[in-house]
Design goal:
0% strand
């Protein structure tokens, strides 16, 4: 049981660091979009940002799923 607790805590810590990194990238990319599209079109740039990030997340998720499938076989 002690081993399971340590594994779960390690997984939570790794997930927490992943979240912090994702939030840092989120702010950096938002700032990039703000500079590229200027502040006049902030709403449009936020939608473009959301769409681009969603597409990237879907592609990476599919890629990781295929990679995981290969390693399990």
């Amino acid at each position: 049981m002690k081993k399971e607790i340590i594994e779960k805590i390690a997984a939570l810590i790794i997930a927490a660091f992943g979240l912090v990194a994702a939030l840092a990238w989120n702010e950096a990319i938002k700032e990039l979009f703000a500079q590229v599209f200027s502040t006049k079109s902030a709403l449009i740039s936020m939608f473009i940002y959301a769409i681009v990030i969603t597409i990237i997340a879907v592609i990476i998720t599919i890629w990781i799923g295929k990679l995981s499938e290969k390693t399990n076989n």
